[in-house]
């Protein structure tokens, strides 16, 4: 399972640090697909049938619908992200530290303090921390949405790691978290399209005014 979590963190890094917004959005697809694989694997290993339902819904919403919505938003947008508050080389270095060192220390903490929770806990907490770092360091709206998506996936994993110990309450919380996250994501995507549309109108007016002056 640890190799699977490392692969998830690798595609998370690509989604967070790629300058090309389209590549970042596309990186969310394997990121989500491996999360789905992890959910199915955990369900199989620990014999939790509800994980198969969760994994199926994750496949449809996280690995297909959300990246498609995001790619549609990029149709009317330049492909390179706006300059972040942290320089790109430094951001890459910090990302590697947060993802690799963070995952290592969270794994140690889980093994010593929370041995009863599922293995997804370490990956989930690392995703949440990294997503928050991206959210505060990126100025580009698309990257901020990707950051939220990563944070939500981290919370999703954290809740999953608790399911065997609080079945009913946690499964209800997971469902509630999932529905709220999807609705919020759709709302952000709609607002993002409106912002891009206004930007296009503004650019069109500026271009027309420049032509009239000439």
From TrEMBL:
Keywords annotated in UniProt: Cell membrane, Membrane, Transmembrane, Transmembrane helix
Listed transmembrane segments: 28-45, 52-70, 90-106, 118-136, 142-160, 172-190
Domain of life: Bacteria
Record's subcellular location: Cell membrane
GO CC terms of this entry: plasma membrane
Name of the featured protein: Hydrogenase
Taxonomic lineage: Bacteria, Pseudomonadati, Nitrospirota, Thermodesulfovibrionia, Thermodesulfovibrionales
Organism: Thermodesulfovibrio autotrophicus
Keyword Transmembrane: yes
Membrane topology: Multi-pass membrane protein
